[in-house]
Structure formats: structure tokens, C-alpha cells
Amino acid sequence: MPNYLVYKSGMHSVGQYQMSTIPFITASVGIPVFGQAPVEISFPRVSKFVTIRNIIPTSSANAVVRVGFSALGTSGSVPSNHNYFTLSNGESYTGEWRVSSVFLICDATNTGASASIIAGMTSVSTSSLDFRNWSGSLGIG
């Protein structure tokens, strides 16, 4: 059978986002201090959802974690490129994001942080992403 007649799942395969997902879990991700390069958590497939939790206890000194979708947007090293959101100690956030990776960095310059990530993977290959060149300079975190 010719390749163009073979069905494979892709970004616009609705069923991939309706069915249950393949789990991706990582705990105790060390997050560098501000001024260093953000840590990138790459996923093996395109995600259906991502949950990120700052696992520093609320009783500890606040270690705010920045979360974004590009190194430049997350580091906020250019004033107009602050394309991230933050999580204080013990906070978590779940987003229904169709992404292949997320970037994390600590807001503090003297202490790092730690996070856990749970994501649901579709069967869609990351090479199928229509928007592979996300950049903080383009307004995408």
C-alpha cells in the first residue's frame, strides 16, 4: 500500500485527545537558580495535559518556580519577554497543553527549587507539532 494511504495519528487527530493517555511522571526535578539556564523537561510524545507542582514545603522559605514554553520566555532575561507563570511553594497547576516540553527556573538567585511533573501523552509524535519554533521573543512563554 502506498504511504499516502496509510493512516497515522497527527496533531488534528481528535481521537488522540479524547481517549485516555499514556502517563509521564517525574518527581524531584532540580530547578536551577535565576541567572542559570532553565531546565527543559522534554516529553516523548505530544501531551494532552501537563501538571506541574512546586514541591518545596509551604513551611520553607519561598522558592517561586517560573514555568514557560521556551528558555528565553521563562528566564525573562529581556524585559519584554516575561512569558511565564509562577508557582509558590506547594502550588500546582494543570493545563491542557499540546506541547513537547516545558521550561522551569527558580525566581531566586540564592536557592533552587524542586518540582514534580505529571503529563498525559498522546500517541502523536513530537515531530508532528505545527509550531516547533516557540520563542519568548515571539510572545510565547
Assembly type of the chains comes to single chain
For this structure, the CATH topology is Jelly Rolls
The number of distinct β-strands equals: 8
CATH architecture: Sandwich
Largest sheet composition: 4 strands, antiparallel
Helix content: under 10%
Q: Which value, in Å, is the CA radius of gyration?
A: 17 Å
Number of helices: 2
Task: Detail the poorly predicted runs.
Answer: none
- Basic shape: elongated
- Cα-to-Cα separation, first versus last residue: 42 Å
Strand order of the largest sheet: 1-8-3-6
H/E order of the elements? HEEEEHEEEE
CATH class: Mainly Beta
- Tell me the strand percentage band: 25-35%
Mean pLDDT: 83
Give the tally of structural domains.
Answer: 1
Structure in a nutshell:
This protein has 141 residues and is mainly beta. The chain has two helices and eight strands.
Summarize the structure in words.
- With 141 residues, this protein is mainly beta.
- The strands form 2 sheets. Strands 1-8-3-6 form a 4-stranded antiparallel β-sheet, with no helix packed on it. A 4-stranded antiparallel β-sheet has the order 2-7-4-5.
- The chain has 2 helices and 8 strands; from the N terminus they run αββββαββββ.
- The longest helix has 5 residues, at 14-18.
Question: Which helices and strands, and how do they pair?
Answer:
Layout: H1 14-18, E1 22-31, E2 39-42, E3 47-54, E4 65-68, H2 71-75, E5 85-87, E6 92-95, E7 101-106, E8 113-121
